[in-house]
């Protein structure tokens, strides 16, 4: 048997098989991470009386300085306006209401959703809880390992955005 110092120069090595194996492992790990994060997020949101879609509406409103058209929120979440209206109604009917609907400032025919102080407070309570969990998890790792993980995740997203942009 010939020893090859560089495994890439091994004539018996099949790069396609290696890539397929790596791809399969990567997919399994990504799916496991996403599934785990969803379970944790859903459980955390349930403690705060929210569903994931309701939380994402609050997050979108935070990102738009507390006010946004229903149609724009629906579009950003790839939902119909009717579906979004139902979500908004449920957020409005909470005690206290987390959002309210108002006529648009520029065009009174447009309906805007406004985050209430209770909605903002609920969003930040959820965010604080999630950040506390991340703090606990990352606190288990040495600083250098944390930086390496963050750098790898950044690299992953940079490659995806550059070479495989989302729709």
From the spread of the alpha carbons, the general shape counts as elongated
**CATH structural architecture:** Orthogonal Bundle
Radius of gyration of CA atoms, rounded to a whole number: 23 Å
What count of structural domains? 1
Helix content: 55-70%
Q: How many DSSP-defined strands?
A: 3
Biggest sheet strand line-up: 1-3-2
Class inferred from helices and paired strands: mainly alpha
* Biggest β-sheet strands, sense, barrel: 3 strands, antiparallel
Within CATH, the superfamily carries the name: Winged helix-like DNA-binding domain superfamily/Winged helix DNA-binding domain
Our measurement of the CA-to-CA distance between the termini, rounded to an integer number of angstroms, reads 49 Å
Low-confidence stretches: none
Q: Let me know the average pLDDT.
A: 89
Can you identify the CATH class?
A: Mainly Alpha
Count of helical regions = 6
| CATH fold node name | Arc Repressor Mutant, subunit A
């Amino acid at each position: 048997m010939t020893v090859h110092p560089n495994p890439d120069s091994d004539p018996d090595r099949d790069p396609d098989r290696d890539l397929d194996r790596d791809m399969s492992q990567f997919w399994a790990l990504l799916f496991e991470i996403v599934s785990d994060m969803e379970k944790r997020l859903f459980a955390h949101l349930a403690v705060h009386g929210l569903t994931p879609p309701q939380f994402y509406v609050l997050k979108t409103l935070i990102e738009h300085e507390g006010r946004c058209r229903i149609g724009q929120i629906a579009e950003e979440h790839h939902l119909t306006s009717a579906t979004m209206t139902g979500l908004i109604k449920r957020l409005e009917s909470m005690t206290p209401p987390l959002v309210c609907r108002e006529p648009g400032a520029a065009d009174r025919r447009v309906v805007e959703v406004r985050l209430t102080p209770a909605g903002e407070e609920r969003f930040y309570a959820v965010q604080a809880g999630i950040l506390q969990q991340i703090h606990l998890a990352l606190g288990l790792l040495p600083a250098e390992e944390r930086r390496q993980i963050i750098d790898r995740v950044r690299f992953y997203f940079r490659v995806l955005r550059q070479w495989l942009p989302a729709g």
